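Changelog note: in this version the structure field was regenerated for every chain. One regenerated record is shown below for reference.
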Amino acid sequence: MTPLERQIAFDIAMRVGRGLELEPMLRDSLSIMLRQLGCVAGGVFKCRPDHPDTMVLLQHIPHHGTSLRLLEHARQRLLSWIAEHEASAPPKELTLLVQDEEGDPLHLHLYSLPRFGALALLRPGHPLSHPLRQSLIPIAEQLAQACLAHDRLHTIQAIQSELRLERERAQAALLALSDGVISLAPQGAIQLINPAAERLLGVTRQHVLGQHVTDWIRVRDEFDGEPIDLTRLLGLDSDAPPAELARGRRVVLNHGPHAGSILELSLSPIHAADMAQQGMVIVLRDISAEVEAKRTLEWEATHDMLTNLANRRAFERRLDQLFYNARMEGGRHALVVFDLDHFKVLNDSEGHAAGDELLRQIALLISTQTRTSDMVARLGGDEFALLLADCPLERAEILARNITDAMAKIRFYWGGRPHPVSVSAGIVGIDSQTASAQEALSDADTACYAAKEKGRNQVQVYRPGDADLSRRKATLAWITRLEHALSHRLFCLVAQPIRPITLTTEQEHYEILLRLREAGSEIIGPVDFIAAAERYHLMSRIDRWVVEETLASLHRGPQHVSVAINLSGQTLADDGFSDFLHEKVRECGVAPQRLCFEITETAAISNLSRAQDFMREFRDRGFRFALDDFGSGLSSFAYLKNLPVDMLKIDGSFIRHVDHDATDRVMVEAIARVGKVMGIPTIAEYVERQEILTTLREIGVDYAQGWVVGRPRALGEILPALN
C-alpha cells in the first residue's frame, strides 16, 4: 500500500470511528485495571478489517495526566510493526520500549482485539511480567467482544434512526400529495389511505382501514360507461397486477362528492426481498380539469366561437376527406358557399352587435335545414359553407334554394327597425374529376360571386366549361395574389420621364408606375391586375403602398425631381387617406411641390364632390393635380371648369394615330387650345414614334411621355443617377 493510499484509508477510518465511545462501565473497568497494573495511560484502537494498517484511537484513558502524544506514538509503532510483518497475522500480545516527553523509558504493551483493533497500555519502569501479560490476553478478547457488540448496537441504532427519519419524510410527503394514495394488502384490504384519497372518495381512514378496496372504490369506463370490475382491474384475483396499470388507466368515479370525476388510476406492486408480492399501492389522480381543458381547446380549435359552427380549419379537413373519397372511391358530394348580401351595411349602421346576432341566426337556420351527416361551417366574416356528403349536384341545388328562400323570409329587427336578409349561394360538385379540394372551394367562391352579381339572393351552380365563370374565376385568383403581394412587399415601382416639348424647365418630372414581381422574377404590368384590384376593393391599400414607397425614395433623391402618382377612385372615397397622406409627407419631409397626383377623368366624375374637396384641400397646401385620360368622357370640357387641376393629360387613344388621323388631330388640337386658354399645361402620353412627337410639337402640346421620350426604369436606379 502506498503512503497516499494509507493516508486516505486513515482519513476514512477517522471518519468512521469519530464519535464512538465505550460504555461507561467498561471505561471505568479499564481505568481501574490501568491503576492496578501501574500504567500511566491506555487506549483502545479500532482498525478497518480490509485495512489493518489504518488504526484510529477511539478512546483515550489518561492516568496521572499522561499526554495523548504517547498513545499516538504507540499507534505509530503498532502500524510500523504491522507494515514490517505484512505477511503474518498481528500478535495477540506485543511489548515495545518507548520514551516519554522527558526521555524516560516506558513499556508499551499492545494486545490484539480480534476483528476490532488493539488495546494499548503504557507502563513506566519494568514491563509487566510474562504471566500477567498472558492473563491479559483473554481480557483483551472479552474487550474485543464488548467493542464489537457496542459497534453493532451503534450501527443498528443509526439504521433505526435513519429509518424513522425516512418514515417521517414519507409520511409528510404522503400528507402533502394532491393525488390520492391507498396502500393495499395482497388480498385487497386497505392498509393506508392519505388525506387526498379521503377527500376524493368522501371517506375517513377510520372507516376504511382494514376494509376491502372494492367496498369503497367503484368506477366505470370513461368511454362506454360500463362498470369496471376493480378486483380484475387490480389483478387481485391473480398473482400479479396487470402491467397496463403501471402507466395508468383513465376511469370515471361512480360515487361520493366527486362522482363523475375522471381519474387516472395507476398501481405499483410492493415486493419483499425474495420478490414475493406483499401488496400494492394505488394512486388516484383527478384529471377532470385537465381533460376538460383539453376538450375545450380541441373544440375551440375546430369551432367558430360566435356561431358554434365548425370553423375553417375543420371545414378544410372535412373537404379533404370528401375529395379523397371522391377520387379513390368514386363518391359524389357537393359544396355550397353562402355569402350574406349587404352585411356591411348592417354592421356599419347598427354596429357589430347587430351583425353578430344576425350571423348566429343565419347559422341556426342553415343547421336546421341540413342532415346530421352534413357539415355547416363559418369560413369567416359573413361567409358560410355547407359540405354535403353523398349528395348529387341537383339535390344540393334544391337545398341551397330552400335555404336562400328561408333567408328571404327572415324578419330581422334591431333597434326597433327591420333589416332585409338575403344570401347568395355558389354550388360545386365534388367527384372523381375534381382537381383538388382547394380548386373545389375556388369554384364555389366563383359561383357565389356570380350569384351576387345576378341580383342577390340567387343560386349559381359552377359547371366546367362555363366561359363567364372561368373569367370570373381568373379574376378571383388575383385576390389571393394581390393580398400576398401586399403582405410580402412584392410590388415594385418604375418611373417614366415626362419631357417638355415646347417649354424649357430644369425640373425633372416622372410618372410613377406600378409593377408586380412574382416567382421567377417575372414582372407583371398593371393592365393584368388593376381591374381585379378595383373590382375587389384593394386599390386603396395599393395606392397607400405606392405613396409610402415613393415618398421614402424622394426623401433620398435630389430636390429638382418631382413625380406624378396615380390615385384611384376608391382612394378618393377613402375617408382615412387624407390623414394618411399628411402623416407620411410630414414623416418624410418631402416638399408638396414635388408631388403631383394623377386622377382619371372617370374617377373624378364618379365622385365629383369628394374629388373636388380632396383636390382643393391638398392643392391649397402646395400639391399639384393632373386630370388623366382627359377627353375620354362625353362631358370632359364641362367638368374641367369644376375641377382644380394643374395639368391635363390627354387620353392615349387620341395620341397613338395623331400623326395621320385627322379626327384624333382635331381632338388633340382642341384640348391643347383649351389648356392654353385656361393656363393649364397639357401632357400627351403613349408617344411611341418620332412622327407623333413632331406632330405634337406642331400642335403646341407642352409635354410628352412615351418610349420615344424615355422608357420606364426602376425608381431605385433613376434617383441615384440624378444625384
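Spot check on this record: DSSP finds 25 helices and 29 strands in the chain. Confidence is low (pLDDT under 50) at residues 1-22.
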